[in-house]
Design goal:
211 residues, alpha+beta, Protein Transport Mog1p, Chain A, two-stranded antiparallel sheet, 5 helices, 27% helix, globular, DUF1795 domain-containing protein
């Protein structure tokens, strides 16, 4: 099959995958208020006003970071465990990227090669820890686990975050699903985060539809 024939294959119509408890949808096209305030009260209200204010600020920051992407096709979520009312992970995913023979979207092999190269981000250093490829029932994907070291030169503030980036090439589809998990708990969830993502990918089902 040549590339033109691949490009004519069905598109991703829907997908489903398992996540651990505590995930909530984020809708960056809508105002952060009253969503962040109400959710913070719901999840941290029993821990006092300071806990509510802290969680509200975290949720507003997550909302703002997603809003800056200006992606009308993306899906966004944040994880706040009931037993630990603070943001421990965020998720962005989008499933309508078309196969492109001139980019990393040409194949899972091309995608994996790109994941071995650090991205350049303003005020940040990307440390790639691991890159892997795996076949799951939904197709084949390449994943990258990295640590992002941020340094604001204006304020000299520094912080790190963990990130897992995924590119899934569903079997029989002309489209690619990209996912990005991010957590500020560097070192606490290194293996745990990757294992949770791998379990989620293994559970994924993709429904295709004709173009």
């Amino acid at each position: 099959m040549n590339f033109a024939e691949y490009a004519a294959l069905p598109i991703i119509a829907d997908l489903d995958f398992k996540l651990q408890p505590g995930w909530r949808a984020v809708r960056p096209a809508q105002p952060a208020e009253p969503w962040a305030k109400d959710l913070a009260k719901q999840l941290a209200g029993r821990r006092g006003r300071a806990a509510v204010k802290s969680l509200q600020a975290q949720l507003e920051a997550v909302h703002a970071s997603f809003a800056r992407l200006e992606d009308p096709y993306g899906r966004f979520a944040v994880r706040v465990p009931d037993e630990k009312p603070q943001v421990v992970c965020t998720l962005f995913y989008r499933g309508n990227f078309a196969l492109d023979e001139k980019s990393e979207l040409a194949s899972v092999e091309a995608y994996e090669r790109v994941l071995h190269k650090p991205d350049s981000e303003p005020g940040a250093r990307v440390e790639i820890v691991n890159v892997w490829r795996e076949t799951v029932p939904a197709g084949e994907y390449a994943g990258q686990y990295s640590v992002i070291h941020y340094h604001d030169l204006a304020t000299d503030e520094k912080h790190d975050e963990e990130r897992v980036s995924i590119g899934l090439f569903p079997t029989g589809s002309s489209q690619v699903l990209e996912m990005v998990y991010t957590t500020p708990e560097v070192g606490a969830n290194t293996d745990h985060l990757v294992e949770l993502v791998r379990e989620s990918m293994a559970s994924m089902t993709v429904r295709l539809a004709p173009q």
